[in-house]
Amino acid sequence: MEENKKYISVRFETTNKTYTFSTTDPSVKNGDAVVVETQRGMEYGHVVSDPFEKPNVSLEIKEIIRKANEKDRKQFERNKADSIHARKICQEESDNLDLKMNVISAEYTLDRAKITFTYLADDRVDFRELLKVLASIFHCRIDLRQVGTRDKAKMVSGIGVCGRELCCAKFIGEFDRISINMAKNQLLALNIQKLSGQCGNLMCCLRFEDDAYKSLRKDLPKLNSQVEYEGERFRITSMNVIAKNCKLENPEHAIFISLDDLIAKGKYNKPVKKEDKGEKGEQSGAGK
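Below the sequence we write its predicted C-alpha coordinates.
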Protein backbone atom coordinates (compact mmCIF):
# COMPACT_ATOMS: atom_id res chain seq x y z
CA MET A 1 0.00 0.00 0.00
CA GLU A 2 2.95 2.30 0.71
CA GLU A 3 3.95 2.41 -2.97
CA ASN A 4 0.48 3.82 -3.83
CA LYS A 5 0.73 6.57 -1.22
CA LYS A 6 1.13 10.12 -2.49
CA TYR A 7 1.52 13.41 -0.65
CA ILE A 8 -0.39 16.66 -1.03
CA SER A 9 -0.36 20.16 0.44
CA VAL A 10 -3.56 21.30 2.14
CA ARG A 11 -4.52 24.85 3.09
CA PHE A 12 -7.32 25.96 5.40
CA GLU A 13 -9.46 29.05 4.88
CA THR A 14 -8.39 30.73 8.12
CA THR A 15 -4.65 30.56 7.43
CA ASN A 16 -2.19 30.87 4.56
CA LYS A 17 -0.06 28.07 5.91
CA THR A 18 0.09 24.81 3.99
CA TYR A 19 0.32 21.41 5.64
CA THR A 20 1.38 18.09 4.16
CA PHE A 21 -0.92 15.06 4.24
CA SER A 22 -0.76 11.69 2.56
CA THR A 23 -3.40 9.89 0.51
CA THR A 24 -3.86 6.56 -1.22
CA ASP A 25 -6.79 7.89 -3.26
CA PRO A 26 -5.48 8.38 -6.83
CA SER A 27 -8.40 10.68 -7.66
CA VAL A 28 -7.31 13.43 -5.23
CA LYS A 29 -6.00 16.41 -7.19
CA ASN A 30 -5.14 20.09 -6.86
CA GLY A 31 -8.23 22.14 -5.98
CA ASP A 32 -10.18 19.33 -4.30
CA ALA A 33 -11.78 19.86 -0.89
CA VAL A 34 -10.70 17.29 1.71
CA VAL A 35 -11.46 16.39 5.32
CA VAL A 36 -8.42 15.94 7.55
CA GLU A 37 -7.56 15.46 11.21
CA THR A 38 -5.32 18.14 12.76
CA GLN A 39 -4.28 19.08 16.28
CA ARG A 40 -7.42 21.19 16.53
CA GLY A 41 -9.74 18.38 15.37
CA MET A 42 -11.54 17.49 12.16
CA GLU A 43 -11.11 20.25 9.57
CA TYR A 44 -12.17 21.11 6.04
CA GLY A 45 -9.42 22.28 3.68
CA HIS A 46 -8.42 22.52 0.04
CA VAL A 47 -5.61 20.75 -1.81
CA VAL A 48 -3.19 23.38 -3.18
CA SER A 49 -0.65 21.14 -4.94
CA ASP A 50 -0.44 18.24 -7.33
CA PRO A 51 0.40 14.90 -5.66
CA PHE A 52 4.14 14.52 -5.01
CA GLU A 53 6.57 11.95 -3.66
CA LYS A 54 7.29 11.63 0.06
CA PRO A 55 9.05 14.74 1.40
CA ASN A 56 12.33 14.36 3.26
CA VAL A 57 10.98 14.86 6.77
CA SER A 58 11.16 12.71 9.87
CA LEU A 59 7.79 13.77 11.31
CA GLU A 60 4.77 11.53 10.96
CA ILE A 61 2.51 12.64 8.13
CA LYS A 62 -1.19 11.99 8.65
CA GLU A 63 -3.42 10.63 5.92
CA ILE A 64 -6.48 12.57 4.82
CA ILE A 65 -9.77 11.17 6.10
CA ARG A 66 -11.55 11.52 2.75
CA LYS A 67 -12.36 13.79 -0.13
CA ALA A 68 -15.03 16.20 1.04
CA ASN A 69 -18.57 15.52 -0.16
CA GLU A 70 -21.59 17.81 -0.48
CA LYS A 71 -22.63 17.12 3.11
CA ASP A 72 -19.18 18.21 4.34
CA ARG A 73 -19.35 21.39 2.25
CA LYS A 74 -22.78 22.32 3.62
CA GLN A 75 -21.62 21.62 7.17
CA PHE A 76 -18.58 23.81 6.64
CA GLU A 77 -20.71 26.68 5.33
CA ARG A 78 -23.13 26.29 8.23
CA ASN A 79 -20.24 26.37 10.71
CA LYS A 80 -18.94 29.60 9.15
CA ALA A 81 -22.34 31.26 9.54
CA ASP A 82 -22.77 30.03 13.12
CA SER A 83 -19.24 31.19 14.02
CA ILE A 84 -20.26 34.81 13.47
CA HIS A 85 -23.01 34.48 16.08
CA ALA A 86 -20.70 32.53 18.41
CA ARG A 87 -18.11 35.32 18.35
CA LYS A 88 -20.76 37.87 19.39
CA ILE A 89 -21.89 35.65 22.28
CA CYS A 90 -18.30 35.20 23.47
CA GLN A 91 -17.72 38.97 23.41
CA GLU A 92 -20.94 39.64 25.31
CA GLU A 93 -20.12 37.07 28.00
CA SER A 94 -16.56 38.38 28.41
CA ASP A 95 -17.97 41.92 28.79
CA ASN A 96 -20.42 40.65 31.42
CA LEU A 97 -17.46 39.24 33.37
CA ASP A 98 -15.55 42.52 32.85
CA LEU A 99 -12.72 40.78 31.02
CA LYS A 100 -10.56 43.11 28.95
CA MET A 101 -10.55 41.07 25.75
CA ASN A 102 -11.44 41.83 22.16
CA VAL A 103 -12.82 38.67 20.56
CA ILE A 104 -11.72 38.61 16.92
CA SER A 105 -13.09 35.36 15.59
CA ALA A 106 -14.70 32.02 16.34
CA GLU A 107 -14.15 28.82 14.41
CA TYR A 108 -15.85 25.43 14.71
CA THR A 109 -14.16 22.18 13.78
CA LEU A 110 -16.04 20.43 11.00
CA ASP A 111 -17.77 18.01 13.39
CA ARG A 112 -18.55 20.85 15.85
CA ALA A 113 -16.76 18.98 18.63
CA LYS A 114 -14.71 22.08 19.40
CA ILE A 115 -14.88 25.83 18.89
CA THR A 116 -11.83 28.09 19.00
CA PHE A 117 -12.17 31.74 20.00
CA THR A 118 -9.33 34.07 19.09
CA TYR A 119 -8.92 37.29 21.05
CA LEU A 120 -6.69 40.31 21.60
CA ALA A 121 -5.79 41.57 25.08
CA ASP A 122 -3.18 43.92 26.48
CA ASP A 123 -2.57 41.71 29.51
CA ARG A 124 -3.03 38.12 30.50
CA VAL A 125 -6.70 37.23 31.00
CA ASP A 126 -8.07 34.86 33.62
CA PHE A 127 -10.83 33.30 31.55
CA ARG A 128 -11.61 30.26 33.71
CA GLU A 129 -15.10 31.52 34.54
CA LEU A 130 -15.70 32.44 30.91
CA LEU A 131 -14.80 28.90 29.84
CA LYS A 132 -17.51 27.50 32.12
CA VAL A 133 -20.10 29.91 30.75
CA LEU A 134 -19.22 29.20 27.11
CA ALA A 135 -19.18 25.42 27.65
CA SER A 136 -22.72 25.59 29.08
CA ILE A 137 -23.88 27.57 26.03
CA PHE A 138 -22.19 25.69 23.17
CA HIS A 139 -21.97 22.18 24.71
CA CYS A 140 -18.60 21.40 23.13
CA ARG A 141 -14.90 21.85 23.88
CA ILE A 142 -13.84 25.49 24.12
CA ASP A 143 -10.42 26.84 23.17
CA LEU A 144 -9.52 30.48 23.89
CA ARG A 145 -6.41 31.63 22.02
CA GLN A 146 -4.71 34.99 22.52
CA VAL A 147 -2.98 36.51 19.47
CA GLY A 148 -1.10 39.71 18.63
CA THR A 149 -1.98 42.62 16.37
CA ARG A 150 -0.18 41.09 13.36
CA ASP A 151 -2.30 37.96 13.67
CA LYS A 152 -5.43 40.09 13.86
CA ALA A 153 -4.54 41.95 10.65
CA LYS A 154 -3.91 38.62 8.94
CA MET A 155 -7.30 37.27 10.00
CA VAL A 156 -9.36 40.40 9.35
CA SER A 157 -7.46 41.48 6.19
CA GLY A 158 -7.88 44.85 4.50
CA ILE A 159 -6.33 47.11 1.86
CA GLY A 160 -2.77 48.37 2.31
CA VAL A 161 -1.31 51.73 1.30
CA CYS A 162 -0.29 50.10 -2.00
CA GLY A 163 -3.96 49.58 -2.86
CA ARG A 164 -3.72 45.79 -2.68
CA GLU A 165 -4.90 43.23 -0.15
CA LEU A 166 -2.66 42.97 2.92
CA CYS A 167 0.31 40.69 2.27
CA CYS A 168 -0.21 38.86 5.57
CA ALA A 169 -3.76 37.93 4.59
CA LYS A 170 -2.98 37.22 0.93
CA PHE A 171 0.06 34.97 0.97
CA ILE A 172 2.33 35.22 4.03
CA GLY A 173 2.18 32.04 6.10
CA GLU A 174 4.82 32.74 8.75
CA PHE A 175 5.74 36.10 10.26
CA ASP A 176 9.45 36.98 10.03
CA ARG A 177 11.31 39.51 12.14
CA ILE A 178 11.29 42.99 10.59
CA SER A 179 13.82 45.68 11.51
CA ILE A 180 14.18 49.37 10.76
CA ASN A 181 17.43 48.54 8.91
CA MET A 182 15.28 47.07 6.15
CA ALA A 183 13.71 50.49 5.61
CA LYS A 184 17.22 52.00 5.51
CA ASN A 185 18.17 49.50 2.82
CA GLN A 186 15.32 50.88 0.71
CA LEU A 187 16.52 54.46 1.34
CA LEU A 188 13.16 55.34 2.89
CA ALA A 189 12.55 58.23 5.26
CA LEU A 190 12.46 56.75 8.77
CA ASN A 191 8.92 57.82 9.56
CA ILE A 192 7.60 54.98 11.72
CA GLN A 193 3.97 55.98 11.19
CA LYS A 194 4.28 55.76 7.40
CA LEU A 195 6.35 52.57 7.58
CA SER A 196 3.79 50.78 9.76
CA GLY A 197 0.97 48.62 8.48
CA GLN A 198 -2.59 48.31 9.76
CA CYS A 199 -1.35 46.16 12.64
CA GLY A 200 0.81 49.05 13.93
CA ASN A 201 4.07 47.17 13.25
CA LEU A 202 6.58 47.65 10.45
CA MET A 203 5.12 46.56 7.11
CA CYS A 204 5.80 42.98 6.03
CA CYS A 205 6.86 44.09 2.53
CA LEU A 206 10.03 45.58 4.04
CA ARG A 207 11.10 42.03 4.85
CA PHE A 208 10.44 40.20 1.61
CA GLU A 209 11.75 43.09 -0.54
CA ASP A 210 14.95 43.39 1.49
CA ASP A 211 17.10 40.93 -0.49
CA ALA A 212 16.23 42.64 -3.78
CA TYR A 213 17.23 46.10 -2.48
CA LYS A 214 20.46 44.75 -1.00
CA SER A 215 21.34 43.25 -4.37
CA LEU A 216 20.51 46.47 -6.26
CA ARG A 217 22.66 48.57 -3.89
CA LYS A 218 25.61 46.16 -3.80
CA ASP A 219 28.08 48.21 -5.91
CA LEU A 220 26.68 51.67 -5.22
CA PRO A 221 28.08 54.37 -2.90
CA LYS A 222 26.19 55.25 0.25
CA LEU A 223 23.65 58.03 0.37
CA ASN A 224 25.23 61.40 1.37
CA SER A 225 28.71 60.22 0.38
CA GLN A 226 31.00 62.41 -1.76
CA VAL A 227 31.64 61.70 -5.43
CA GLU A 228 33.62 63.32 -8.23
CA TYR A 229 31.68 63.52 -11.49
CA GLU A 230 32.89 65.21 -14.68
CA GLY A 231 35.51 67.18 -12.78
CA GLU A 232 33.18 68.47 -10.06
CA ARG A 233 32.71 67.45 -6.45
CA PHE A 234 29.17 66.44 -5.42
CA ARG A 235 27.25 64.89 -2.56
CA ILE A 236 24.70 62.15 -3.33
CA THR A 237 21.49 63.55 -1.82
CA SER A 238 18.95 61.05 -3.17
CA MET A 239 18.95 57.73 -4.93
CA ASN A 240 16.24 55.57 -6.51
CA VAL A 241 17.57 52.08 -7.19
CA ILE A 242 14.33 51.00 -8.90
CA ALA A 243 14.25 53.92 -11.36
CA LYS A 244 18.08 53.74 -11.48
CA ASN A 245 18.76 57.43 -11.00
CA CYS A 246 20.23 59.72 -8.37
CA LYS A 247 20.59 63.37 -7.48
CA LEU A 248 24.02 64.98 -7.03
CA GLU A 249 24.36 68.37 -5.33
CA ASN A 250 27.11 70.86 -4.52
CA PRO A 251 26.95 74.55 -3.46
CA GLU A 252 26.70 75.68 -7.09
CA HIS A 253 24.02 73.42 -8.56
CA ALA A 254 22.29 70.04 -8.59
CA ILE A 255 22.11 67.45 -11.35
CA PHE A 256 20.18 64.23 -11.95
CA ILE A 257 22.03 61.33 -13.54
CA SER A 258 21.48 57.62 -14.04
CA LEU A 259 23.10 55.14 -11.69
CA ASP A 260 24.81 53.59 -14.71
CA ASP A 261 26.52 56.93 -15.37
CA LEU A 262 27.46 57.24 -11.72
CA ILE A 263 29.13 53.83 -11.76
CA ALA A 264 30.85 54.42 -15.13
CA LYS A 265 32.01 58.02 -14.69
CA GLY A 266 31.89 58.79 -10.99
CA LYS A 267 34.95 58.56 -8.74
CA TYR A 268 34.25 57.39 -5.22
CA ASN A 269 35.36 54.77 -2.73
CA LYS A 270 33.90 51.45 -3.81
CA PRO A 271 31.97 49.44 -1.20
CA VAL A 272 34.24 47.01 0.62
CA LYS A 273 33.41 43.32 0.38
CA LYS A 274 33.07 41.45 3.66
CA GLU A 275 36.10 39.27 3.00
CA ASP A 276 38.22 42.38 2.41
CA LYS A 277 37.23 44.21 5.59
CA GLY A 278 39.81 42.46 7.73
CA GLU A 279 42.68 43.77 5.60
CA LYS A 280 41.38 47.10 4.32
CA GLY A 281 38.92 48.20 7.01
CA GLU A 282 35.74 50.08 6.33
CA GLN A 283 35.81 52.70 3.58
CA SER A 284 33.36 55.55 3.39
CA GLY A 285 33.07 59.09 2.15
CA ALA A 286 34.81 60.53 -0.89
CA GLY A 287 37.89 59.41 -2.72
CA LYS A 288 40.85 61.52 -1.66
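The first helix runs from residue 70 to 96.
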